[in-house]
Amino acid sequence: MALPERAEIVVIGAGHNGLTCAAYLALAGREVIVLEARDEPGGCASTVDAIGARVNICNCDHTMVLASGIVEELDLAPPAQPRPRRCGRRTRCAALAGRQPELSRYRTPVSGPYLTGAATFPGAGVWGASGRNAAAVILAARNGKR
Fold first, then answer.
1. With b meaning 16 or more CB within 10 Å and e meaning fewer, what string describes 44-79?
2. What fold is seen in the domain 9-142?
3. Domain boundaries in the chain?
4. For residues 12 and 36, what is the distance between their CA atoms, to the nearest angstrom?
5. CB under 8 Å to 30, separation ≥6 — which residues?
6. Alpha helices of the chain — where are they, by DSSP H?
């Protein structure tokens, strides 16, 4: 596939957080391109053929994404599947659902690049909070808010 000559935002890495970040940025109307070194997207959330079976690369639990609201916000649940329930306790679940970008560092010392990886958010995990929060920080910076 040919790459465009320019893009407003380039996300490097098509792991779960890079894809989540790119999806939120696109949803906000930004022109986004995602670059990935591997043949398939997914990063640590990928399932691959290994040791004679299909295995998750990092052997992680994907249930946290269901409580985060990301599945609903990005309309990711298949139509035939019931929508996952969100956490009912808003204040207690704010950190659990990854809605506190101020807890993390998404900016870099170089102007322009931002980090979206799981290690940027306390608790890490495979659930997209870092990607969603990085998108919020990027959009705020591009809209002149810091």
1. bbbeeeeeeeeebeeebeeebbbbbbbbeebeeeee
2. FAD/NAD(P)-binding domain (3.50.50)
3. 9-142
4. 6
5. 8, 9, 139, 142
6. 16-27, 64-68, 70-73, 90-96, 129-142
C-alpha 106/C-alpha 74 separation (Å) is 21
- Statement: the pTM of the whole predicted model exceeds 0.85: no
| pLDDT tens sequence across 86-98 | 554 444 444 444 5
CA count, 13 A, side-chain hemisphere, 82 = 3
What whole-number distance in Å separates Cα of residue 68 and Cα of residue 86? 7
Tokens, residue 128: 């997209």
